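Annotated sample (chain length 272).
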Amino acid sequence: MEIRYIKRFLLFVLFCITPKLWGQQKISGKVITGDELDLVPVLVVNISGNKSSLSDMSGNFEIEAKENDEIRFVKEGYYRVDKKMTKEEINTPFNIILKKIEIQIPEVKIKYKPTGNLAKDNQHYNESRKLQALKSDMDDYMRSPLNQPLPNNTVSKTFTGHDFNAGQVNLFGVFNAVKKLAQPKVTKANYNETQDFLRRVRNEVNLNFLKKYGMDDEQIDAFLLYADKTRLLAKRYRKDFSINVVEYELKVAFAEYSKTHKLEGTQEQYIH
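Output written by the structure step:
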């Protein structure tokens, strides 16, 4: 009897767990920007599942998702892309194309059209002698010292009426003050603080993307010092440490670092 109940219990547990295992799985693909030299990683966010990841230096990404989840692709300077997962795309890698945001220059309108007559055109563009003299006099007046004290720029209490704010607490000001107190103040990191921050980066952030290019521990330490110097990592994030943010900053720094340092795998990547 006991064995029968145990078997039924195990089947019930398996029945409850199996849908969850099947429902959530990893999707993969590649982000294409159209610019082969633009290797800055793209932020991939599962809006429905509240998960996020970063694409690698080649644009490849992987994130947990299930059917009908909304996946968002975000990159600075590019239009955001939102995609709803279908059943077919769950098991098949797919490409995402990001389009660059166009920067529009405002149109400059020229009100006066030159006639070719120098005397007439100079009369339009050059200031009159009276206007030049007036500007010169105003400039001399503004630079001259004050001869009389300035009046008190206040309104008499007789005409101001009752001040309904007197004795009241400025809730908006209090809210801003509390918000400022809650955020850690950004200050320059000393030597010990910088070393502690870099040690935490080595222990908590996934640095496998550096090892993929053949970097040993000494080279990784040299790169971390470079990233801290160029991106001010210890100064900005030692008090507010976020693994995803720090990893993103490291990949941004690596995109520049790889242009001036020869690493295994980078040559092949640039050729393709």
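Annotation: Residues 17-22, 267-272 have pLDDT under 50 and may be disordered.
Annotation: Residues 197 and 241 are 9 Å apart (CA to CA).
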